[in-house]
Design goal:
Length: about 190
Amino acid sequence: MPETESLTQRQRKWFASVREGLERETGRSLDDWADLARACPETGLRKRAAWMKATYGLGRNRAMMVLNAAFPPEAGWSKPETLAGTLWADPAARAVHEAVRHVVLALPEVVVGQRKGFTAYSRKLQFCALRPLRQGVLLGLAIEPAANGLKQAGGKGGWSERLLSEIVLGAPDEVTAPIAELVRQAWERS
């Protein structure tokens, strides 16, 4: 289960409802489910989730909650520093990330949600996220792209569908006042 410090109130409620629903509707506690999951003959996460569905009828969200309890990842939700260290290992990408992070954390009520493939920033809802690229860092923002001269977000990047626009930042000095203003606008809408 993720640490609550890296989740918004809405996310905390959602995780609690998944857990409560699992226990209420199945009559088994999360610990009981974790014990059952440890008997899984599969070794990969996706195969284990498929096994949980085939064997017990658990949907993806419930299966993932059970599997995280049964097989805590070395660098998972509960260890955001480890995830961030791995994700932002490249010094150039880390420098861009830190420049954007400085802008974001100057705003009030920001929740940092570290994920395996990106760093998310939320207020009540996610308003921006950063993902390292081979060259630069992708900044996704919860604002309309056309109105702000930005590129339309490309497909499902694994982060919130609220992030409608994106821009690639190649160096920390590209995190200028106009970028800070776009981040502020996205924050206001969250």
